# Entry
Amino acid sequence: MGATSLILVRHGESTANLAASAAESAGAEVVDAPLRDPDVPLSSVGMDQAAAVGGWLRSLPPTSFPGFVWSSPYLRAAETARLATAGQPVQLAAYTDERLRDRELGITDALTTVGVEARLPTEAARKRRLGKFYYRPPGGESWADVALRARSFLVDLDRVADGGRVLVVTHDAVIMLIRYVCEALTESQLLEVARTSPLLNASVSILTRPDGAGRWAVEEYNSVAHLRELGAPVTVHTGDADVFPR
# Structure
């Protein structure tokens, strides 16, 4: 028997989210984000969003409350997990795992879509040919690579959280690829989910399997009702926006 419930939370709005959205809107080639990706913190809005996740957790009945929290080690996710679990009536067993980190972008890091086309036209063409799921930028990862580490993570999670409910705080691409693994989605099904329902900051998605084995079912996906109820802003900053390469 393994875990019975996964509560998947995307980190709150980060300072790099703001910089990337501004660069894309301005048609700039480079995102003005000087920090290392692992060191990017939450914005003030992101902190409010993380606190709202904590309020939502406190509203859960004991039968639905998680016993464990796993987080990406990247600061924006770790901060979200810390703020969301602070002051809870039950102390969660806490873990960080590098397999939950955001997708590595390699030589395309800090470049916008316009920037990749202008500065790396051969890579842009290769991405169009291979497609979003299998394209791996030099020095980076494809979505298939992230799916591989998601599979490994889920095996270890089941060993620790046998029969338990788990809160996982991570990044948008990682959450989508956990769904891909847990539900045995196809490449086209995954890309359709990503295209039609891009994950919002501090959104909650819940996967369940009461018997602790077999395929997972989606109970809730990309919900931000808790943000609206608790007065936190809803923000749209898609980390992997170019689902269908142009």
In short: Residues 14 and 89 are 27 Å apart (CA to CA). Residues 143-160 form the longest helix (18 residues).
